Amino acid sequence: MDTLFLAYNRLIEGTDCSCQRYLHNRIDWQERLIGIKGARGVGKTTMLLQHIKLTFEDRSKAFYVSLDHIWFSGHTLSDLVEYLYSHGVTHIFLDEVHRYMTWTREIKNIYDNYPSLHIVFTGSSLLEIDSAEADLSRRLRMYFLQGLSFREYLAITQVATLPVLTLEDVLAQHIQTAASISAKLKVLPYFEKYLQQGYYPFFLETTSQESYYDRLQKVITTVIDNDIPAVEDIGYETLQKTKRLLSILAESVPFTPSVTTLCETLSTTRNQLIKLLTLLERAALIRQLHSEGKNLKAIGKPEKILFDNSNIMQALVQPADTGTVRESFVAAMISHSHSINFPKQGDLLVDSRYLFEIGGKNKGFAQIRNIPDSFVVADEIEIGFGNKIPLWMFGMLY
């Protein structure tokens, strides 16, 4: 037990609270049971530690622990909670719950048996909280944490503090907004670096682009080797096929999948392939785009596959396809609050209304001409005009 307390206090002391993620102020911390999902490496642990450090003058009222700690190989979460509650702890923060086999049942029992206790937990983006599983979902307020937006990247690197924009702000007021920002800041060099190594906050702990990509590759390996088996009954051979599939996608994107070809390459069935793609998407490694209104029978096969964010793709393959890097960035930023589909024309259909064609500074309207609510999203420009919007502005959405 002492090792857990030493680790807790050491982590709190070493936590920098100078910059908080967008989600911190959106969470209703008064709720008794809060879950925070997100991809590995996006900053869930840091957010918990910051909240404790900023909120609790009496640190003994709160306690943080990661459920993958070796202490739990010989003890249960219930044992720990009983000890903490009897010693005056009122708020418990549990990290990496997906690494603890019976976490749903025990958290449900803790919630019921300690009515004055507040519980916050984090887990992999792979988690699916089923109401049939210990009846946890009806008690739970769940949040999802994405990686850094470009706006957050500028803030965390102390370059600039900029306001959050809505999608409607970007579409209707991009010229004046971009002009105001560009008058104070040379945006494009920072944006180029962000696309390469800015989505995961751990870039602050790396010394070069090479070390950042090395760490991100290790994160991807950990997700496949450890996180996926922790939430899915999946064998070693299937995990190896998952890695092979990810490698194929990295070398092929923008990828319009041929199910037959992929099945032959991986020596697998259609159903198994669809399952692997779904797991990679739930793990926040890829993003599948489906046509709007696609019937349920056919929804398994995506029309197009992107990576979840621009950094993952560039960590897996160099040089990365520039067009896919741009599309992956826009999809990552917009998906925070909006739905995305694969359109008949253009690159992305947002909220079944807005059509985006994404490209470089010379990208024109030929492919989406005369289509209502259509926009060109162009890289390598600071300020747009008409319905031509700078790519970097979509990084201001959260």
Describe this structure as you would to a colleague:
By secondary structure, this protein is an alpha/beta fold. Helix 7 packs across helix 12. Strands 2-3-4-1-5 form a five-stranded parallel beta sheet. A five-stranded mixed beta sheet has the order 8-9-10-11-12, with helices on one face. The mean pLDDT is 94. It folds into two domains: 144 residues, P-loop containing nucleotide triphosphate hydrolases (Rossmann fold), CATH 3.40.50; 247 residues, no CATH class. The protein is built from 13 helices and twelve strands. Helix content is 40%, strand content 14%.
The gist of it:
40% of the residues lie in helices and 14% in strands.
Question: Any key phrases for this structure?
Answer:
single chain; 398 residues; Rossmann fold; 2 domains; 5-stranded parallel sheet; 5-stranded mixed sheet; 13 helices; 14% strand
Set down the secondary structure blueprint.
Blueprint: H1 2-13, E1 33-38, H2 44-55, E2 62-66, H3 77-86, E3 91-95, H4 103-113, E4 118-124, E5 141-145, H5 150-156, H6 167-182, H7 187-197, H8 209-231, H9 236-252, H10 259-266, H11 270-282, E6 286-289, E7 304-307, H12 310-316, H13 322-334, E8 340-341, E9 348-350, E10 354-359, E11 374-378, E12 388-390
Parallel strand pairs: 1-4, 1-5, 2-3, 3-4, 10-11, 11-12
Antiparallel strand pairs: 6-7, 8-9, 9-10
Helix pairs in contact: 7-12, 8-12, 12-13
